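Whiteboard transcription, Tuesday session. T.W. wrote the structure tokens on the left side:
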């Protein structure tokens, strides 16, 4: 191996730093009440900014995957830092109207978020072929933990300087973190493999005939994995979008304690991405989802009866563990089925599942809360959805190793 080859763990750490800043999007719920109180907007109107950002993410990750193949990960990551940081910063001018909040935080920030998210995932899976599940979990663990730092900091800033100036401060911080991490992003040299590691024969054959995006889309397995990610994300993101006000309403705690709860459950989001991805290396990716869906069905059914902050936090922790587990496990799942050569575009397009879940989950819970006056009905509906979803992992199987004329799996 050439002496100029960088330490892969340095690249991994830089990727985690990027993801921490990008994952701050999950602290959105601490902005909801201050924006409603200051401008008189409705819960649904404010929640739509978060919904737009998440919807845009999936399509931006696909574009980022294509761009990475042409220009490399560093260029895409730098652009992500500028767009994401600028989007959050420009949200500080949201007193111009809701449309400005949607365009800045939602659209511009969401594009930057999507471009940045795919870079560490697609890059590190190439640097760590020997630890595929673990490294993809680590690559997105920082994203899940981003709200742990942001929620209490944002709450303190809102109390001190106001909600709009808080956007300005955080936007600058995010810009520095993502751009700084981007400087370390690069693909491994051709033919790279870790010292002392040799790929199994099956992996060698898969890499020799890796799926392209076009051939992956011709397989039903791609849509099966998309459905798994969509359903799992819908459940978790519904909780994330309303976590702080939900904690306040169900358990009658203060805004500060609710914000602390958001930070706490964000730990589970990050830990779940690493834990379930690591576990999937031993029990299989399908079995991870086969455990997570029934478990969430039980938890969502119990949430309305949570009588204390401790009970609510414990149940929300389980949901966020599973939510993170979906994102931590799926990149390795995709690489197992379709190879690593085109994982940036194949998984990038699959993240449109995140986009549509980001619309369904927050919209469902916000609208039912407004129409019924409580979160109970939304929780029972999601519990039923999770129970039905448990059928899908039983059906998903690896695609047949049939090679097309172009040398790719058909």
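and on the right, the sequence the group agreed on:
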């Amino acid at each position: 191996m050439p002496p100029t080859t960088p330490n892969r763990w340095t690249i991994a750490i830089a990727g985690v730093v990027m993801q921490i800043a990008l994952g701050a999007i999950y602290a959105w719920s601490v902005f909801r009440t201050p924006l409603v109180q200051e401008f008189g907007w409705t819960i649904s109107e404010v929640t739509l900014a978060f919904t737009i950002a998440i919807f845009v993410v999936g399509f931006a990750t696909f574009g980022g995957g294509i761009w990475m193949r042409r220009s490399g990960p560093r260029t895409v990551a730098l652009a992500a830092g500028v767009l994401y940081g600028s989007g959050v910063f420009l949200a500080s001018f949201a007193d111009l109207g809701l449309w400005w909040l949607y365009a800045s935080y939602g659209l511009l920030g969401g594009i930057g978020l999507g471009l940045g998210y795919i870079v560490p995932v697609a890059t590190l899976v190439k640097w760590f072929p020997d630890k595929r599940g673990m490294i993809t979990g680590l690559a997105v663990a920082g994203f899940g933990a981003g709200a742990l730092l942001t929620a209490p900091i944002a709450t303190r800033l809102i109390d001190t300087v106001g909600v709009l100036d808080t956007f300005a401060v955080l936007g600058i911080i995010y810009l520095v973190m993502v751009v700084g991490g981007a400087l370390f992003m690069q693909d491994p040299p051709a033919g790279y493999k870790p010292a002392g590691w040799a790929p199994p024969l099956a992996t060698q054959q898969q890499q020799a005939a890796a799926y392209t995006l076009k051939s992956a889309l011709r397989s039903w397995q791609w849509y099966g994995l998309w459905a798994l990610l969509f359903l799992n994300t819908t459940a978790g993101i519904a909780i994330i979008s309303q976590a702080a006000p939900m904690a306040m309403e169900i358990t009658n705690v203060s805004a500060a304690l609710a914000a602390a709860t958001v930070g706490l459950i964000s730990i589970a989001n990050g830990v779940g991405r690493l834990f379930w991805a690591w576990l999937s290396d031993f029990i299989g990716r399908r079995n991870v989802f086969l455990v997570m869906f029934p478990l969430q069905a039980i938890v969502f059914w119990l949430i309305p009866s949570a009588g204390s902050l401790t009970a609510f936090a414990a149940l929300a922790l389980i949901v966020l563990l599973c939510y993170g587990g979906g994102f931590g496990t799926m990149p390795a799942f995709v690489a197992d089925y379709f190879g690593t050569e085109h994982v940036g575009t194949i998984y990038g397009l699959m993240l449109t599942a995140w986009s549509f879940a980001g619309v369904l989950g927050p919209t469902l819970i916000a609208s039912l809360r407004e129409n019924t006056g409580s979160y109970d009905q939304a929780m029972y509906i999601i519990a039923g959805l999770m129970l039905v979803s448990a059928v899908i992992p039983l059906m998903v199987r690896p695609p047949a190793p049939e090679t097309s004329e172009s040398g790719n799996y058909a």
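Someone added at the bottom: Confidence is low (pLDDT under 50) at residues 203-208, 402-410.
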